[in-house]
Amino acid sequence: MRGGNWVGVVGRRLRKQASYGSHSTSSPPEYPNILGPNLPDVWTSTTQSHRPQSSGNFSASGNTATIIDGKPIAEEIKFRIAGEIQRMKTAIGKSPGLAVVLVGQRRDSKTYINIKLRACEKVGIATVIAELPENCTESELLDVVSRFNEDPSVHGIFVQLPLPQHLDEEKIMTVVSPEKDVDGFHPLNMGNLAIKGRQPFFIPCAPKGCIELLLRFGVEIFGKRSVVIGRSKIVGLPIALLLQRHHSTVSTVHSFTKNPEQITSQADIVVSDVGIPNLVQGNWLKPGAVVIDMGTNLVKDPSSRHGFRVTGDVCYEEAIKVVSAITPVPGGVGPVIISMLLSNTLESAKRAFGFT
Amino acid sequence: MRGGNWVGVVGRRLRKQASYGSHSTSSPPEYPNILGPNLPDVWTSTTQSHRPQSSGNFSASGNTATIIDGKPIAEEIKFRIAGEIQRMKTAIGKSPGLAVVLVGQRRDSKTYINIKLRACEKVGIATVIAELPENCTESELLDVVSRFNEDPSVHGIFVQLPLPQHLDEEKIMTVVSPEKDVDGFHPLNMGNLAIKGRQPFFIPCAPKGCIELLLRFGVEIFGKRSVVIGRSKIVGLPIALLLQRHHSTVSTVHSFTKNPEQITSQADIVVSDVGIPNLVQGNWLKPGAVVIDMGTNLVKDPSSRHGFRVTGDVCYEEAIKVVSAITPVPGGVGPVIISMLLSNTLESAKRAFGFT
């Protein structure tokens, strides 16, 4: 992998042995069908056809909600990825590569990138980071992205957002090759996610993590009512599209929805990604619902060492008395999202190398 | 425009003066904002921010529902388009061109194509039709599409569906240049329709016609509950995406939805495109709702001259007693859809020629 050989870009290479150790499985394990089963819509004029209930959702049972802990799942996924990468190295002498592009010196961006780099390192994904100054030109940035597009050792390109105001984020995200768009934000990938039966190269990491958790916890999605609160292109929109591909009946609630609590209270599955602590209160939730809280909000907390704590969009204390299962924040979906980035990068490398 | 210069393809040219006559307006008239206003989602933790109601929807008033007649609107749009094309011809000596691709001899496909060709002819859009035999190879078809992609006199390419089974529809639709994809089905255009703030080159004709009718009849979409029944890539999916861009709260009902009537009965706006006559009965509808019936179904009718008649998905006789406005079938959205194809072709030509 090349890196750091152009003006204004500092490349550094991290290529280490997977710290998860070797994985003895020679064939890839079964992945859950994240895109959902491809079923024709068969309507009848008098009744709707329903698949028989193979398994119910969690039942409402007072305050015995299941806590959907993402950490062990994330660890298990990373372990599996590390094993797959080890198998790839052994078989063809190659590993996946992820290129990260950072413009400017935002501290939070650097923190996020470091978390991703460490995760890559642990599973054996080679990484290269291109750092550009805050005042770089659009053409300099596009040049960096184009080089990564051409580089056969790069299988995923990750442009850290937000970009400085003077850069056209939409344009830059569209220049990332759809085949290396491990974020899944390229409109071609989003379109192929939206259109039933089509296969995007990548599913965005947050929605993929959300569905992964639902599937692993045996939550039935098929035929269930889902409400997605928030409609960002990163989370809300692709989650709604993905839930629909799993044949859920999806409603999207947003800031201009007049009665969000009333609509949300009809849902079997609630996914929230809004950025407002405690927006979703207990009375918004149907007894027995499953809640995936994608919000990550910092709230003041004098009792905490740093003076604040991280919380989601859902009032956890109230929700836990009503719902059948819920993701805590932190520790719910968050850890799984990064493992989805690793998974997308591995998938991309497998495709590039024709490795199965 | 070239046509008919390759084996197995019969090209014919139709290039006539617009029969709508000249249009004296020199600047383009204002188009309604089909993509919806681009507003940031601003949430607050305790209340949802709502735009003040500028105008209410139609009010429920017994059986005095407004009949949304698409024919005069379609005529008005075509008149405007003809005027625009006349203005273009006068100013730069150019006109828009639409290429139609037909594989095989399906009678219904030929009928649809003829309707489109006649509509093009009337407004002054030049057309070329490539007819390929039923047993043509994929590469022959792809070659035809590629030639149209390269042809600067072609601004829109329309591949008539369905294609014979042996041809990969998905692949062929993806080969159509997104900049000439007047159908709006290319995943890149669908992705850009889905992502808030982005501009697809084209909005699919049926959804565009649906929104055009809602806007022209002054139906408030902003903040209203919408239910889209059906989720095809041609109608249901893009309509849901478009209604959401207009800040409606959208639920999509499909064949695996357990209680479609209950969900539909909450909607201020109902759009149906399922293909089941009388699926949507009176008790599915909220009093005062606005109904856009996109279904086109043939039902037996011995009293009719041909032994059948065309009907929509909605039980019109029941609905009209409940709703505030409804599109009849035939004569509602249908006529507007074709004018949207003309509008997309004109838009494309304007873009290509830099003509404003």
UniProtKB/TrEMBL annotation, chains A, B:
Keywords: Hydrolase, Multifunctional enzyme, NADP, One-carbon metabolism, Oxidoreductase, Photorespiration. Residues 19-28, 43-63 have a biased composition (Polar residues). It catalyses: (6R)-5,10-methylene-5,6,7,8-tetrahydrofolate + NADP(+) = (6R)-5,10-methenyltetrahydrofolate + NADPH. One of its GO terms (biological process) is tetrahydrofolate interconversion. Pfam families: THF_DHG_CYH (PF00763), THF_DHG_CYH_C (PF02882). GO terms for cellular component: cytosol. One of its GO terms (molecular function) is methenyltetrahydrofolate cyclohydrolase activity. Catalyzes the oxidation of 5,10-methylenetetrahydrofolate to 5,10-methenyltetrahydrofolate and then the hydrolysis of 5,10-methenyltetrahydrofolate to 10-formyltetrahydrofolate. PANTHER family: C-1-TETRAHYDROFOLATE SYNTHASE, CYTOPLASMIC-RELATED, METHYLENETETRAHYDROFOLATE DEHYDROGENASE. Belongs to the tetrahydrofolate dehydrogenase/cyclohydrolase family. Homodimer. This is Methenyltetrahydrofolate cyclohydrolase. It comes from Fagus sylvatica (Beechnut).
